Every structure is written in structure tokens, then in C-alpha cells.
Amino acid sequence: MFTHAIARRPGKNFAQGLTTSFNAKPPQYDLLCKQHETYLETIKSCGLEVTLLDPLPDYPDAYFVEDTAVVTPDVAVITNPGAKARNGEEDFMAPVLAGFRKTEHILAPGTVDGGDVLQVGNHFFIGLSERTNKEGAAQLGRILESYGNTWAAVEVGAGLHFKSSVNYVGKNTLLVTADFAEHAALSKYNKIVLEKAEAYAANTLLVNEHLLMPVGYPDTRKQLKVLGFDIIELETSEVRKMDGGLTCMSIRF
Ligand code: GLY
Q1: What's the pTM value of the predicted model, to 2 decimals?
Q2: How far is Cα 27 from Cα 220, in angstroms, rounded to an integer?
Q3: Ligand 1: distance of its center to the CA of 64 in Å?
Q4: Residue 214 beta carbon below 6 angstroms from any ligand 1 atom
């Protein structure tokens, strides 16, 4: 069970963050804040106490806090984010997490983004992406192993992060894009495979007995329903314009 989450308010300059999603409509700050607020209220309603941090003016992507740390029951591993523009956000997260856990650090030349790290019980998948390199994955893997966990590195391929394409939705089941449907590293798990048109819904977040999913993916919703969890649909239009999703906006533990 998760009991805590850390999140950060988006700053007014959020649209200067990194994005590969080009939209006819530019992202709207007021709407983003409204969606972020609803997200926070939702995770609180799922039983989490939220520590809410202020925006970081020099880091417009900093409300995507997930990338700055990997937190287990034993340790908070402070990452070394792989995008130059985001590297440094982790320095502001380290003292916050030090209040909750012993901290360890990923060191250069290793890079890791938390969005590439998926925990399933005491096993961790570490995606190798443009943000997370082999050295970073190996450092993180060694730290996790030292606390009794196992890990496996997986090439991310298309998509920003591993969790853009694969997430754990409970009951030994992974929600995956078609690219990961037959992946050998995931063979132990049942899989719900997303329709191509619904691939964004891969970024669905399990919080205790609740599944938070982006609104507008009816086929995925129908398939998730069989798991028997409470499904909560959330608007994510503005974070999506900034290549973000539901898992990115909090660190849960
Ligand atoms: N805008 C989210 C990221 O690129 O990290």
C-alpha cells in the first residue's frame, strides 16, 4: 500500500519544457493547473498524503517529479536525469526524500529517469532510453539488489520512457503497447495489449485499489474493468502536450 506521494506544482513557464508533441492548440497554464489539482485530489482520495512542492523556475519540467527518484520501502535512489535541461531537478528532490528514506544516488556518467523504472513487487524493470543509459541502469540495479530486489534492463525503443509503454496494473498483469506484447522479459505476466489508437493509455497508474487512467480510451477501460479495481478517468490533455502522463506527476511510496 502506498501512503505518501510527492508532487510539485507546475510553473507558469511549463510550456518551455521538453516536448515532441506538436499540437494545433498550445498548452494552457490554467487548464494544466486545474488538471493537476484534480490529480492531487484524486491520489489523496486513494489514501495518499501528498507533500506538494513549489515550482522550480529554472526547470519547467520539474512537476514531472517521477523522473527524479526511485523510492522503495528501503531506500530513495536519487536519479541523474538524462536530459540536460532537466538535470539538476534531482538536487531539489534529494532533501525532501531524505525526510522519508535513506538516500542513494546515481552518479555520472550514469543517467536514469524515474519514468524508465517500473516496480512490480520486488522486481524492477529499468528501461534503456535516451534518458537512461546502461551505466545508470547498472548503478540502479546494484543499489536495488543490495536491498534484496531483482532487476532487468529492457530497451525502450519508441516512446519517451519505459512507462510510456508499459505499466503494472495489479493481479500479475501488465498494460502494454503492441511493441511489448511478446517481449521475453515480460513473459511471466498476463498482458493487456493496447490498441494502437489507445497507446497513450499505457500510462495508467495503480494507486492502492484504484486505477487512474487518462480519459478517452474506452477499449482500454473495458479491458481494465475485468481486473475489478475502481477505475478513475482523469483529463490529461495539457500534460500530454508536454510528453507527460499520470505516472510522471508524483512519486508514490
Ligand atoms: N517534458 C517531459 C520530459 O521531456 O521529460
Answers
A1: 0.97
A2: 25
A3: 7
A4: no
- 248 is known as an active-site residue: yes
Task: Give me the number of domains the chain comprises.
Answer: 1
Kindly state if the Cβ of 63 falls inside 6 Å of ligand 1.
Answer: no
CA 204 to chain centre: 9
What is the average pLDDT value for the chain, to the nearest integer?
Answer: 97
Nearest residue by C-alpha to atom 3 in ligand 1: 18
- Contact indicator for 235, 241 with CB cutoff of 8 Å: no
How much of the chain exceeds pLDDT 90, in percent? 97
What's the domain range around 175? 4-252
- pLDDT category of residue 24 using cuts at 50, 70 and 90: confident
* Residue that has been written with the C-alpha cell 524515474 in this structure: 114
Closest protein CA for atom 5 of ligand 1: 18
Nearest CA to ligand 1 atom 1: 18
* CB < 8 Å & 24+ apart, contacts of 226-235: 227/169, 227/170, 227/171, 227/173, 228/171, 229/169, 229/170, 232/42, 234/35, 234/38, 234/39, 234/42, 235/35, 235/38
Domain containing 87 — which CATH number? 3.75.10.10
Probe residue for ligand 1, chosen from 242, 246, 247, 249 as the CB with the greatest number of ligand atoms within 8 Å: 242
For residue 241, what pLDDT is reported? 96
Query: In this predicted model, what pLDDT tens digit does every residue of 195-230 receive, in sequence order?
Result: 999 999 999 999 999 999 999 999 999 999 999 999
